[in-house]
Design a protein that fits this description.
Order of helices and strands: EEEHEHHHHHHEE
Strand order of the largest sheet: 1-5-6
Structural class: alpha+beta
Strand content: 15-25%
Number of helices: 7
Distance between the termini: 11 Å
Length: about 180
């Protein structure tokens, strides 16, 4: 779930005990074992990550919702309409029948429109799937009130139920991708 923003590999958990206190960290093993592959040698403390998630999940959720909706809307506008493509194909056929375009031009244009039609059909079969932002928001709202009472396993389960990936960049900036 935690991904190195530099090399794309998973961050590994590690434990350090100092002064009688146990600290949990995440680090990119590729940076330690293959320095030529990754340069992200910083460790990220688990409690720091949890504090950031608690403080920023709602903001990140809203930002990702707006961005995802804008992308989906742009993709819908950009996607060719099946009926429009069929009309163009019929007009092309009429032009060929009336001998206004030659066979070579007809075949080239027909292939192009046929490819557009296949793309439109594929887009219709596989619409853009957005996360259920409202359901996630309901789960996240007010989490501070009960989060400290959760066990480590329950906290992990809670975040895994909401988040697909957390990407940590070289500058320790964190990016959340929801399920």
């Amino acid at each position: 779930m935690l991904i190195c923003g530099n090399c794309g590999r998973r961050l590994a958990g590690s434990r350090y005990k100092t002064g009688g206190r146990l600290y949990l960290y995440y680090k990119c093993n590729a940076a330690y074992f293959r320095a030529d592959f990754c340069t992200r040698r910083q460790r990220l403390r688990e409690d720091t990550l949890e504090d950031w998630l608690l403080a920023n999940t709602e903001t990140e959720l809203e930002s990702q919702r707006l961005e995802s909706e804008a992308k989906a809307e742009a993709q819908e506008r950009k996607a060719p309409d099946r009926a429009t493509i069929l009309r163009k194909m019929n007009r092309l056929k009429d032009l060929y029948v009336n001998e206004l375009v030659d066979l070579e031009q007809y075949r080239a244009d027909y292939e192009r429109y046929n490819a557009q039609l296949a793309a439109a059909d594929a887009a219709a079969r596989n619409p853009v799937r957005l996360p259920d932002f409202q359901a996630i928001k309901e789960k996240v709202t007010g989490i501070e009130t009960f989060y400290q009472d959760l066990s480590a396993e329950e906290r992990q389960s809670f975040w895994r139920g909401l988040i697909r990936e957390i990407r940590v960049d070289l500058d320790d900036s964190i990016h959340i991708f929801f399920k």
